[in-house]
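DNA ligase, pasting as requested.
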Amino acid sequence: MSIFAVKEQMDALVAELNQHTYNYYVLAMPTIADYEFDKKLEELAKLEKEHPEFADPNSPTQKVGGDITKNFITVKHKWPMLSLGNTYNEQDLRDFDERVRKAIGDDFEYVCELKFDGLSISLTYENVVLVRAVTRGDGTQGDDVTSNIKTIHTIPHHLKGDEIPDIFEIRGEVFMHRAAFEKLNKEREELGEVAYANPRNFAAGTVKMQDSKEVSKRPLDCFLYALNSEKQLFKTHWESLQTVKKWGFNVSDHSKLVNNIDDVLEFISEWENQRFKLSYDIDGIVIKVNSYAQQQELGFTAKSPRWAISYKYKAAEVQTVLEKVTYQVGRTGAVTPVANLKPVLLAGTTVKRATLHNADEIIRLGLHENDTVFVEKGGEIIPKIIKVNLEQRKSTALPIVYTNHCPECETTLIRKEGEVAFYCPNDEGCPPQIVGKIQHFIGRKAMNIDGLGDETIEAFYQRGLVSHISDLYFLKEKADKLKTIERFGEKSIENMLKGIEDSKQMTFEKLLFGLGIRYVGETVAKKLARGLKNIDNLAKASIEELTAVDEIGGRIAESIQDYFSKPEHLQQIVLLKAAGLQFEVAENEVLLQSDKLIGKTFVISGVFEKHSREELKAIIEENGGKILSGISAKLDFLVAGDNMGPSKLEKATKLNVPLISEEQLIEMIEL
Ligand code: IVH
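Structure tokens follow.
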């Protein structure tokens, strides 16, 4: 096979597997048997091994959506992980209460808990150390995902407190906060990757990834809700929750101990609307009999305990009419279809629009003009169309056809191989792309320019004041024109000009991210800045030099070369350089390798085996930690080596400052 044919075959496999993954995880409509999928994945992995030069860094062999790769060790659960019976209405719950009372009488309490919408996990601790984390699997055995779970900041690796049993198991739910989900999913979409349908799928996909380093970049969280041990340690579930909280576990503050089923129903109705105010999704309430002795009396059915049940909230849903489909153009030129709906009240807000994600979603729904559609609002802020009410469709209705030109500049859209989104290629002339790029540049994560906001950029563009990033740095020469803008007073202009001036000191990595080069997100920009030091090296780097940088693959490298091949981009860089922006890494700049130690303080004392004190200091600072000069109650960790001064040791012990070894410090960063 010629080398070109190999590359073509690999690209085709990536595209095909991505499509199947999308169908499976996002559309929940598999289009291939698991076995066939695995065979194709294997074929791709083999080709990637033979031709690493063609391997796509985002290849489906590198990422796991759910259960695709099965390279985890299977572990049998000591206590089977059962599921819960579901109820959907008051009567079901009263029936449950009746069954409980028949078995144990009237003298008992219930604990009401939120039902977190994630995936359950079993954690085993031995001698206060986390030794194993296992997924539910089929309930009898699951996957050992310990190293991935160790990346979750709210799961303690070491416990604190007295009377902790030598060995016990604790269960909880791993989930992703909605804000993190939305942010990361947007980044995925921008990179042309398959977006996840909801935070639960994202969390599940993350826990099953092969690379813990990748997992650590996706913030997961975990609430614990059940303790198991050989010896019975507590009389009630409530007591166990309060105690494990003291050991360092993240236990929800929203649980409630109640006396009867009426109180349970009140709790349920309180959370029916309150739940939308949480930063994460819940899909119901779990009700548990409090006393362990009574739980034992009630026992289990084959599938679930008789002492607990869940109440599931219905996703709020209404029908309304699709008025038209419009298209939004993003900064990268990606064109997203939006359903404009006849306004309708849903879960307390008026819904007028719903996202349609991409062209495939329109096909999946089979949308026709003026269709009556079912709109659902789960935890998400943006509602979605679930399906069409076919009974309401007129026989003359025409199918909605995804646009083939840009709604803003009329340019014919393109779709790259293997990508779901259509793009407007007119990046220099398409207004939302021009405005979006400048908005991205001034954004908090990029140049973070004070006194400038998205609307101001829009207004400036309308008035011909800015059409390129570099124009921002020449605004001070246009002060007269600025004053003519409504609600833009002298003070605001002064603030803005100061913000722009200050931004000239912003670090190279932020500037690089701000340029908005395709596939160059925050992390990639950081790596490139660290690897190549300045813009000139970056602009002339070969594909080999680019891919030699940690985590930079072929697709990113090509995108960088493409960016610097365009004269208009080079011109921008010349102008920005002339304005005095930082196009190289400052010598004394601490380049963050990770943010794992952000907010944490350290004192280093003694002599170490593997690193010098200076090296340890650099390691801490590169990962966002701070070195303090002395031991105080504020100190988070004392990194203790040999021959440490006795007075330091005494002070740290007195103030309860945890002592950690060199290895434990490295572990904190590597996990
Ligand atoms: S207790 C015997 N408490 O819901 C089952 N489960 O449908 C013990 N879940 O597999 C589970 N929040 O993944 C319990 N507060 C909570 C929960 C919870 C979410 C999940 C868990 C479980 C599923 C049962």
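Note for the archive: The chain has six domains: 3-63, 74-312, 316-392, 431-505, 508-579, 601-670.
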